[in-house]
Write a structure and sequence with these properties.
Elements (H helix, E strand, L loop, with lengths): L3 E4 L5 E4 L9 H15 L3 H13 L5 H6 L5 H18 L9 H5 L6 E9 H10 L8 E5 L3 H7 L5 E5 L2 H9 L3 E5 L8 H4 L6 E5 L5 E4 L1
Parallel strand pairs: 1-8, 2-3, 2-5, 3-4, 5-6, 6-7
């Protein structure tokens, strides 16, 4: 296996997505939202359409994604509550992605934040349960979007490590460099669509294929 070396000496800010980058949880969340929708929606086609859109828009807050399809506040609240509960129960059992802890320890000189579309309290609970919160200066999640969080951070040079197209868009719009991790991505056409973004510095499957150097 080829391991790419990547210098992080010029960055004072490192942003890292959670699902599919730190923990292998993308497909578990897909199953969780499907089960939650099936309890309140009778049409299987509607469920499948929402699940497809939900995963396609990974990185956006869950409530924002569901409001694209569901206007009934009671049903929306019930779905969100069920989905949140399933995540808390199941994702604390997620597998940490290979090489993450080895590499994150090498990034001690820069400020590091988890930047996720997941609910902030849920992220805190899951990362604390997996003893991963110790590696970060902060955890940035919903209800604010990733775009909003980045706009509030003060930094000279940043890099974002993510796995979705929305992640790349956040980096591009904020003039941040980007590393794409593909092993657990649900961005189906990344190989062709990634070419339109100028911020991408390197593409790897996961942390085991990259070595950070100062």
């Amino acid at each position: 296996m080829n391991i790419a070396q990547f210098s992080i000496s010029g960055y004072d800010l490192i942003l890292i997505d959670c699902d599919g980058v730190i923990i292998n949880s993308n497909y578990m969340k897909e199953q969780n939202i499907k089960e939650s929708l099936q309890k309140y929606l009778n049409n299987p086609d509607d469920v499948n359409s929402i699940v497809h859109s939900f995963t396609k828009n990974n990185g956006l807050p869950r409530e924002q994604k569901l409001r694209m399809f569901i206007s009934d506040e009671r049903i929306l609240t019930n779905i969100l509550n069920d989905y949140n509960h399933l995540n808390l129960v199941r994702i604390t059992k997620s597998i940490i992605i290979d090489g993450f802890e080895e590499n994150i320890r090498k990034l001690s000189k820069s400020k590091k934040y988890v930047l996720s579309g997941a609910d902030t309290s849920e992220l805190n609970h899951i990362l604390h349960s997996l003893q991963l919160d110790q590696y970060f200066n902060g955890i940035l999640g919903a209800p604010k979007t990733k775009m909003e969080h980045v706009s509030e951070l003060i930094f000279k040079s940043g890099i974002f490590i993510g796995d979705s197209e929305y992640d790349v868009k956040v980096a591009e719009e904020n003039k941040i460099d980007f590393i794409l991790m593909t092993k657990f991505t649900q961005w189906l056409n990344w190989e062709t669509e990634i070419r339109k973004y100028n911020c991408v510095k390197i593409i790897v499957k996961d942390w085991s294929e990259i070595e950070f150097i100062n």
